Amino acid sequence: MRPVDLYCWHFMSYPHLPKDFDEKYDTGWVTVPNALWDRDKSRGLLRQYIDQLVYASEIGFDGMVLNEHHQNIYGLMPSPNIIAAALAHGTKRGKIVVLGNLLPLHMNPLRVAEEYAMLDNMSDGRLIAGFAPGSGPETFNYDAASAPSREQFWEAVELIRDAWTKPGPFPFEGRHFPLRYVNPWPQPTQRPHPPIWIPSGRSKGTLRQIAKHGYSYFLSSRSHGSATARAQQTFAQTLEEYGQKYEPHRMGILMSVCVGETDQEAQEKSQEGIWYFLRNCLKGHQRREGRQLTYGPGVPYIPPSEWRGFLENTDPTTPLLGDTEDWDDLERSASILVGSPDTIYNRLVGILEQAPVGNLLMQFHLGNMPDEWARKSMKLFIEQVAPRLREASVKIFSKKFPYLNERVPEAVK
User: Can you give 187-236 as a three-state secondary structure string?
Assistant: First the structure.
Protein backbone atom coordinates (compact mmCIF):
# COMPACT_ATOMS: atom_id res chain seq x y z
CA MET A 1 0.00 0.00 0.00
CA ARG A 2 1.37 3.37 -1.00
CA PRO A 3 1.62 5.92 1.85
CA VAL A 4 0.44 9.50 1.68
CA ASP A 5 2.64 11.80 -0.40
CA LEU A 6 3.83 14.95 1.38
CA TYR A 7 4.50 18.08 -0.66
CA CYS A 8 5.90 21.48 0.25
CA TRP A 9 3.86 24.28 -1.34
CA HIS A 10 5.24 27.81 -1.56
CA PHE A 11 3.03 30.77 -2.48
CA MET A 12 5.87 33.32 -2.41
CA SER A 13 4.02 36.17 -0.74
CA TYR A 14 5.32 39.73 -0.53
CA PRO A 15 6.74 40.24 3.02
CA HIS A 16 7.64 43.94 3.10
CA LEU A 17 4.30 45.73 3.47
CA PRO A 18 4.10 48.75 5.80
CA LYS A 19 2.71 48.01 9.25
CA ASP A 20 -0.35 50.17 8.57
CA PHE A 21 -1.24 48.36 5.32
CA ASP A 22 -4.51 46.95 6.67
CA GLU A 23 -5.68 50.37 7.81
CA LYS A 24 -4.71 52.25 4.65
CA TYR A 25 -5.44 49.84 1.80
CA ASP A 26 -8.65 48.02 0.92
CA THR A 27 -7.15 45.01 -0.85
CA GLY A 28 -4.00 43.03 -1.50
CA TRP A 29 -5.26 41.88 -4.91
CA VAL A 30 -5.53 43.34 -8.42
CA THR A 31 -5.59 47.04 -7.47
CA VAL A 32 -3.04 47.05 -4.63
CA PRO A 33 -0.56 49.80 -5.67
CA ASN A 34 2.69 48.34 -6.95
CA ALA A 35 4.44 51.42 -5.61
CA LEU A 36 4.53 49.40 -2.37
CA TRP A 37 7.13 47.09 -3.93
CA ASP A 38 10.43 47.85 -2.22
CA ARG A 39 13.19 47.13 -4.73
CA ASP A 40 15.97 47.23 -2.17
CA LYS A 41 14.35 44.99 0.43
CA SER A 42 13.16 42.57 -2.25
CA ARG A 43 16.54 41.88 -3.82
CA GLY A 44 17.15 38.15 -3.52
CA LEU A 45 13.60 37.44 -2.29
CA LEU A 46 12.59 35.03 -5.06
CA ARG A 47 15.96 33.32 -4.84
CA GLN A 48 15.37 32.81 -1.10
CA TYR A 49 11.97 31.29 -1.78
CA ILE A 50 13.41 28.97 -4.44
CA ASP A 51 16.14 27.92 -2.00
CA GLN A 52 13.48 26.99 0.56
CA LEU A 53 11.91 24.63 -1.98
CA VAL A 54 15.31 23.18 -2.85
CA TYR A 55 15.78 22.58 0.88
CA ALA A 56 12.41 20.78 0.98
CA SER A 57 13.62 18.45 -1.75
CA GLU A 58 16.91 17.80 0.06
CA ILE A 59 15.37 16.89 3.42
CA GLY A 60 12.83 14.43 2.04
CA PHE A 61 9.55 15.96 0.89
CA ASP A 62 7.93 14.05 -1.95
CA GLY A 63 7.65 17.16 -4.08
CA MET A 64 7.47 20.93 -4.39
CA VAL A 65 4.32 22.82 -5.41
CA LEU A 66 3.95 26.09 -7.33
CA ASN A 67 0.95 27.97 -8.67
CA GLU A 68 0.06 30.94 -10.84
CA HIS A 69 -1.22 34.27 -9.53
CA HIS A 70 -1.23 37.76 -10.97
CA GLN A 71 -1.01 41.29 -9.59
CA ASN A 72 -1.24 40.62 -5.87
CA ILE A 73 0.81 40.35 -2.69
CA TYR A 74 -0.43 36.80 -1.98
CA GLY A 75 1.65 35.05 -4.62
CA LEU A 76 4.57 36.49 -6.61
CA MET A 77 4.47 33.84 -9.34
CA PRO A 78 2.77 35.13 -12.48
CA SER A 79 4.86 32.50 -14.30
CA PRO A 80 5.37 29.40 -12.13
CA ASN A 81 7.07 27.67 -15.05
CA ILE A 82 10.09 29.93 -14.58
CA ILE A 83 10.38 28.86 -10.93
CA ALA A 84 9.86 25.24 -11.99
CA ALA A 85 12.77 25.55 -14.41
CA ALA A 86 15.01 26.74 -11.58
CA LEU A 87 13.89 23.77 -9.45
CA ALA A 88 14.43 21.33 -12.32
CA HIS A 89 18.05 22.45 -12.44
CA GLY A 90 18.57 22.92 -8.69
CA THR A 91 17.08 19.66 -7.37
CA LYS A 92 17.73 15.99 -8.00
CA ARG A 93 14.67 14.41 -6.39
CA GLY A 94 11.02 15.12 -5.69
CA LYS A 95 8.13 15.88 -8.00
CA ILE A 96 7.77 19.41 -9.36
CA VAL A 97 4.06 20.25 -9.23
CA VAL A 98 2.81 23.27 -11.16
CA LEU A 99 -0.78 23.68 -9.97
CA GLY A 100 -1.27 25.09 -12.35
CA ASN A 101 -1.08 27.13 -15.51
CA LEU A 102 -4.27 29.19 -15.95
CA LEU A 103 -5.11 28.08 -19.47
CA PRO A 104 -7.74 30.70 -20.47
CA LEU A 105 -5.13 33.41 -19.85
CA HIS A 106 -2.67 31.91 -22.32
CA MET A 107 -3.07 32.94 -25.94
CA ASN A 108 -2.34 29.44 -27.20
CA PRO A 109 -2.29 26.33 -25.00
CA LEU A 110 0.21 24.70 -27.36
CA ARG A 111 2.81 26.97 -25.75
CA VAL A 112 1.93 25.45 -22.36
CA ALA A 113 2.29 21.94 -23.79
CA GLU A 114 5.75 22.89 -25.08
CA GLU A 115 6.92 24.48 -21.83
CA TYR A 116 5.67 21.61 -19.70
CA ALA A 117 7.41 19.13 -22.03
CA MET A 118 10.64 21.11 -21.59
CA LEU A 119 10.24 21.02 -17.80
CA ASP A 120 9.60 17.27 -17.84
CA ASN A 121 12.82 16.78 -19.81
CA MET A 122 14.83 19.18 -17.66
CA SER A 123 13.67 17.44 -14.46
CA ASP A 124 14.13 13.91 -15.85
CA GLY A 125 10.44 13.09 -15.70
CA ARG A 126 9.51 14.71 -12.39
CA LEU A 127 6.81 17.13 -13.57
CA ILE A 128 3.21 16.99 -12.44
CA ALA A 129 1.20 19.13 -14.87
CA GLY A 130 -1.56 21.16 -13.26
CA PHE A 131 -4.18 23.07 -15.25
CA ALA A 132 -6.72 25.56 -13.91
CA PRO A 133 -9.26 27.93 -15.46
CA GLY A 134 -8.46 30.75 -13.01
CA SER A 135 -10.61 32.44 -10.40
CA GLY A 136 -12.29 35.82 -10.10
CA PRO A 137 -9.18 37.99 -9.66
CA GLU A 138 -7.65 36.61 -12.85
CA THR A 139 -10.81 37.54 -14.75
CA PHE A 140 -10.27 41.15 -13.72
CA ASN A 141 -6.48 41.04 -14.07
CA TYR A 142 -6.48 40.03 -17.72
CA ASP A 143 -9.95 41.20 -18.74
CA ALA A 144 -10.63 37.56 -19.52
CA ALA A 145 -14.29 36.79 -20.13
CA SER A 146 -15.52 34.41 -17.47
CA ALA A 147 -18.51 32.86 -19.26
CA PRO A 148 -16.58 31.01 -22.00
CA SER A 149 -13.59 30.22 -19.78
CA ARG A 150 -14.72 26.71 -18.81
CA GLU A 151 -15.27 25.68 -22.41
CA GLN A 152 -11.92 27.21 -23.38
CA PHE A 153 -10.26 25.44 -20.48
CA TRP A 154 -11.37 21.92 -21.31
CA GLU A 155 -10.59 22.42 -25.00
CA ALA A 156 -7.09 23.60 -24.02
CA VAL A 157 -6.56 20.54 -21.80
CA GLU A 158 -7.64 18.28 -24.67
CA LEU A 159 -5.23 20.01 -27.04
CA ILE A 160 -2.31 19.67 -24.62
CA ARG A 161 -2.98 16.01 -23.93
CA ASP A 162 -3.28 15.30 -27.66
CA ALA A 163 -0.02 17.15 -28.29
CA TRP A 164 1.70 14.78 -25.87
CA THR A 165 0.13 11.52 -27.01
CA LYS A 166 -0.69 11.73 -30.74
CA PRO A 167 1.99 11.48 -33.44
CA GLY A 168 2.49 14.84 -35.09
CA PRO A 169 1.97 16.78 -37.12
CA PHE A 170 -1.82 16.70 -36.96
CA PRO A 171 -4.57 19.34 -37.16
CA PHE A 172 -6.61 20.29 -34.11
CA GLU A 173 -10.14 21.35 -35.00
CA GLY A 174 -11.01 23.29 -31.86
CA ARG A 175 -13.59 26.02 -31.52
CA HIS A 176 -11.27 28.29 -29.55
CA PHE A 177 -7.81 27.05 -30.52
CA PRO A 178 -7.89 25.69 -34.09
CA LEU A 179 -4.43 24.72 -35.28
CA ARG A 180 -3.25 23.43 -38.63
CA TYR A 181 -0.09 21.84 -37.24
CA VAL A 182 0.30 20.31 -33.78
CA ASN A 183 3.79 18.84 -33.64
CA PRO A 184 5.63 19.92 -30.45
CA TRP A 185 9.30 19.24 -29.87
CA PRO A 186 10.48 18.05 -27.38
CA GLN A 187 8.00 15.47 -26.20
CA PRO A 188 7.66 14.83 -22.44
CA THR A 189 9.90 12.26 -20.78
CA GLN A 190 7.01 10.54 -18.94
CA ARG A 191 4.71 8.19 -20.84
CA PRO A 192 2.02 8.53 -21.92
CA HIS A 193 2.36 12.05 -20.45
CA PRO A 194 3.07 13.78 -17.13
CA PRO A 195 0.38 13.24 -14.48
CA ILE A 196 -2.41 15.82 -14.85
CA TRP A 197 -3.93 17.46 -11.78
CA ILE A 198 -7.02 19.67 -11.93
CA PRO A 199 -7.88 21.97 -9.00
CA SER A 200 -11.56 22.57 -8.37
CA GLY A 201 -14.09 23.32 -5.68
CA ARG A 202 -16.94 20.85 -5.59
CA SER A 203 -18.32 21.32 -9.10
CA LYS A 204 -19.98 18.11 -10.20
CA GLY A 205 -19.28 18.94 -13.82
CA THR A 206 -15.57 19.34 -13.17
CA LEU A 207 -15.42 16.11 -11.17
CA ARG A 208 -17.04 14.27 -14.08
CA GLN A 209 -14.45 15.60 -16.49
CA ILE A 210 -11.63 14.61 -14.12
CA ALA A 211 -13.03 11.11 -13.73
CA LYS A 212 -13.80 10.67 -17.42
CA HIS A 213 -10.25 11.47 -18.50
CA GLY A 214 -8.37 9.78 -15.66
CA TYR A 215 -6.96 12.96 -14.10
CA SER A 216 -6.40 13.70 -10.41
CA TYR A 217 -8.50 16.07 -8.31
CA PHE A 218 -7.12 18.78 -6.06
CA LEU A 219 -9.71 20.31 -3.72
CA SER A 220 -9.42 24.11 -3.84
CA SER A 221 -10.26 24.82 -0.23
CA ARG A 222 -8.20 25.97 2.73
CA SER A 223 -10.61 24.79 5.44
CA HIS A 224 -10.99 21.10 6.20
CA GLY A 225 -13.54 19.08 8.06
CA SER A 226 -16.87 17.57 7.09
CA ALA A 227 -16.94 19.51 3.79
CA THR A 228 -13.63 17.93 2.75
CA ALA A 229 -14.98 14.50 3.63
CA ARG A 230 -18.08 15.16 1.52
CA ALA A 231 -15.89 16.25 -1.41
CA GLN A 232 -13.89 13.03 -1.16
CA GLN A 233 -17.08 10.96 -1.04
CA THR A 234 -18.55 12.83 -4.01
CA PHE A 235 -15.39 12.25 -6.03
CA ALA A 236 -15.44 8.55 -5.13
CA GLN A 237 -19.07 8.31 -6.27
CA THR A 238 -18.23 10.15 -9.49
CA LEU A 239 -15.40 7.71 -10.22
CA GLU A 240 -17.84 4.83 -9.77
CA GLU A 241 -20.10 6.38 -12.41
CA TYR A 242 -17.21 5.94 -14.83
CA GLY A 243 -16.39 2.40 -13.76
CA GLN A 244 -13.44 3.36 -11.56
CA LYS A 245 -12.64 2.83 -7.90
CA TYR A 246 -11.36 5.58 -5.67
CA GLU A 247 -7.63 5.54 -4.99
CA PRO A 248 -6.34 8.08 -2.42
CA HIS A 249 -3.62 9.45 -4.71
CA ARG A 250 -6.26 10.62 -7.18
CA MET A 251 -7.06 13.45 -4.72
CA GLY A 252 -5.14 16.11 -2.81
CA ILE A 253 -5.79 18.96 -0.38
CA LEU A 254 -4.00 22.12 0.71
CA MET A 255 -3.24 23.23 4.25
CA SER A 256 -0.71 25.39 6.06
CA VAL A 257 1.54 23.88 8.73
CA CYS A 258 3.75 25.49 11.37
CA VAL A 259 5.73 23.09 13.57
CA GLY A 260 7.66 24.03 16.71
CA GLU A 261 9.42 22.09 19.45
CA THR A 262 6.32 22.75 21.59
CA ASP A 263 2.83 24.15 20.96
CA GLN A 264 3.90 27.39 22.64
CA GLU A 265 7.00 27.81 20.51
CA ALA A 266 5.02 27.11 17.33
CA GLN A 267 2.51 29.83 18.18
CA GLU A 268 5.10 32.36 19.29
CA LYS A 269 7.37 31.91 16.27
CA SER A 270 4.63 31.77 13.65
CA GLN A 271 2.20 34.35 15.03
CA GLU A 272 3.45 37.39 13.11
CA GLY A 273 3.71 35.52 9.79
CA ILE A 274 0.26 33.94 10.15
CA TRP A 275 -1.55 37.16 10.99
CA TYR A 276 0.33 39.06 8.29
CA PHE A 277 -0.92 36.41 5.87
CA LEU A 278 -4.51 36.49 7.16
CA ARG A 279 -4.91 40.27 7.42
CA ASN A 280 -2.88 41.39 4.41
CA CYS A 281 -2.42 38.60 1.88
CA LEU A 282 -6.03 37.42 2.08
CA LYS A 283 -7.56 40.90 2.06
CA GLY A 284 -9.54 41.26 -1.13
CA HIS A 285 -9.90 37.50 -1.62
CA GLN A 286 -10.60 35.31 1.43
CA ARG A 287 -11.65 38.11 3.77
CA ARG A 288 -14.98 39.94 4.05
CA GLU A 289 -13.44 43.29 4.92
CA GLY A 290 -12.07 45.34 2.05
CA ARG A 291 -12.64 45.42 -1.69
CA GLN A 292 -13.11 41.89 -2.96
CA LEU A 293 -12.63 41.10 -6.64
CA THR A 294 -13.10 37.37 -6.30
CA TYR A 295 -16.79 37.55 -7.15
CA GLY A 296 -18.87 39.75 -9.43
CA PRO A 297 -21.69 39.53 -11.98
CA GLY A 298 -20.91 36.32 -13.82
CA VAL A 299 -17.56 35.97 -12.01
CA PRO A 300 -16.60 33.25 -11.56
CA TYR A 301 -18.70 31.53 -14.17
CA ILE A 302 -21.06 28.93 -12.69
CA PRO A 303 -23.02 26.68 -15.07
CA PRO A 304 -26.80 27.20 -14.88
CA SER A 305 -27.23 23.60 -13.73
CA GLU A 306 -25.16 24.35 -10.62
CA TRP A 307 -26.37 27.90 -9.92
CA ARG A 308 -29.25 26.91 -7.63
CA GLY A 309 -26.95 24.78 -5.47
CA PHE A 310 -24.46 27.64 -5.30
CA LEU A 311 -27.14 30.03 -4.04
CA GLU A 312 -28.53 27.54 -1.54
CA ASN A 313 -25.13 26.76 -0.06
CA THR A 314 -23.57 30.23 -0.09
CA ASP A 315 -24.00 32.69 2.77
CA PRO A 316 -22.31 36.05 2.08
CA THR A 317 -22.11 36.73 5.81
CA THR A 318 -20.15 33.60 6.68
CA PRO A 319 -16.66 34.50 7.93
CA LEU A 320 -13.80 33.56 5.64
CA LEU A 321 -10.33 32.41 6.61
CA GLY A 322 -9.01 35.98 6.60
CA ASP A 323 -11.67 36.92 9.15
CA THR A 324 -10.07 34.65 11.76
CA GLU A 325 -9.94 36.47 15.09
CA ASP A 326 -7.88 34.23 17.37
CA TRP A 327 -6.12 30.88 17.76
CA ASP A 328 -9.38 29.10 18.61
CA ASP A 329 -10.91 30.28 15.32
CA LEU A 330 -7.83 29.10 13.50
CA GLU A 331 -7.93 25.65 15.08
CA ARG A 332 -11.60 25.17 14.19
CA SER A 333 -10.94 25.91 10.52
CA ALA A 334 -8.25 23.17 10.26
CA SER A 335 -6.63 25.36 7.63
CA ILE A 336 -3.45 26.49 9.39
CA LEU A 337 -2.17 23.79 11.75
CA VAL A 338 0.14 25.11 14.45
CA GLY A 339 1.82 23.06 17.17
CA SER A 340 4.41 20.55 18.28
CA PRO A 341 5.21 17.48 16.16
CA ASP A 342 2.74 15.41 18.21
CA THR A 343 -0.01 18.00 17.80
CA ILE A 344 0.51 18.26 14.05
CA TYR A 345 0.65 14.48 13.66
CA ASN A 346 -2.62 13.99 15.54
CA ARG A 347 -4.38 16.72 13.57
CA LEU A 348 -3.27 15.31 10.22
CA VAL A 349 -4.19 11.75 11.14
CA GLY A 350 -7.63 13.04 12.10
CA ILE A 351 -8.01 14.70 8.72
CA LEU A 352 -6.92 11.56 6.86
CA GLU A 353 -9.32 9.40 8.83
CA GLN A 354 -12.17 11.72 7.92
CA ALA A 355 -11.07 12.40 4.33
CA PRO A 356 -8.60 9.74 3.11
CA VAL A 357 -6.65 11.60 0.43
CA GLY A 358 -3.22 10.58 -0.80
CA ASN A 359 -1.65 13.99 -1.45
CA LEU A 360 -1.11 16.57 1.30
CA LEU A 361 0.11 19.87 -0.15
CA MET A 362 1.45 21.91 2.75
CA GLN A 363 2.42 25.56 2.97
CA PHE A 364 5.18 26.17 5.53
CA HIS A 365 6.03 29.79 4.74
CA LEU A 366 3.27 32.29 5.45
CA GLY A 367 3.27 36.05 4.96
CA ASN A 368 6.46 37.64 6.28
CA MET A 369 7.72 34.57 8.12
CA PRO A 370 11.54 34.57 8.52
CA ASP A 371 13.47 32.12 6.37
CA GLU A 372 15.08 30.36 9.34
CA TRP A 373 11.75 29.67 11.02
CA ALA A 374 10.15 28.29 7.86
CA ARG A 375 13.11 25.94 7.44
CA LYS A 376 13.01 24.80 11.07
CA SER A 377 9.30 24.06 10.76
CA MET A 378 9.89 22.03 7.60
CA LYS A 379 12.73 20.08 9.22
CA LEU A 380 10.74 19.26 12.36
CA PHE A 381 7.88 18.09 10.18
CA ILE A 382 9.94 15.84 7.94
CA GLU A 383 11.90 14.32 10.84
CA GLN A 384 9.26 13.99 13.56
CA VAL A 385 5.89 13.98 11.81
CA ALA A 386 6.35 12.54 8.32
CA PRO A 387 7.59 9.02 9.24
CA ARG A 388 4.69 8.40 11.63
CA LEU A 389 2.17 10.00 9.26
CA ARG A 390 3.25 7.86 6.33
CA GLU A 391 2.97 4.73 8.46
CA ALA A 392 -0.44 5.72 9.80
CA SER A 393 -1.70 6.57 6.31
CA VAL A 394 -0.94 3.05 5.08
CA LYS A 395 -3.09 1.62 7.88
CA ILE A 396 -5.92 4.09 7.19
CA PHE A 397 -5.91 3.44 3.44
CA SER A 398 -5.68 -0.35 3.90
CA LYS A 399 -8.66 -0.34 6.24
CA LYS A 400 -10.85 1.96 4.15
CA PHE A 401 -9.89 0.58 0.72
CA PRO A 402 -9.03 -3.13 1.13
CA TYR A 403 -9.33 -3.65 -2.63
CA LEU A 404 -6.10 -1.67 -3.04
CA ASN A 405 -4.22 -4.38 -1.15
CA GLU A 406 -5.13 -6.84 -3.88
CA ARG A 407 -3.25 -5.06 -6.65
CA VAL A 408 -0.43 -2.68 -7.33
CA PRO A 409 -1.96 0.82 -7.58
CA GLU A 410 -2.22 2.02 -11.14
CA ALA A 411 -0.10 4.97 -12.16
CA VAL A 412 -2.01 8.20 -11.78
CA LYS A 413 -2.67 9.62 -15.20
Answer: CCCCCCCCCEEEEECCCHHHHHHHHHHCCEEEECCCCCCHHHHHHHHHHH
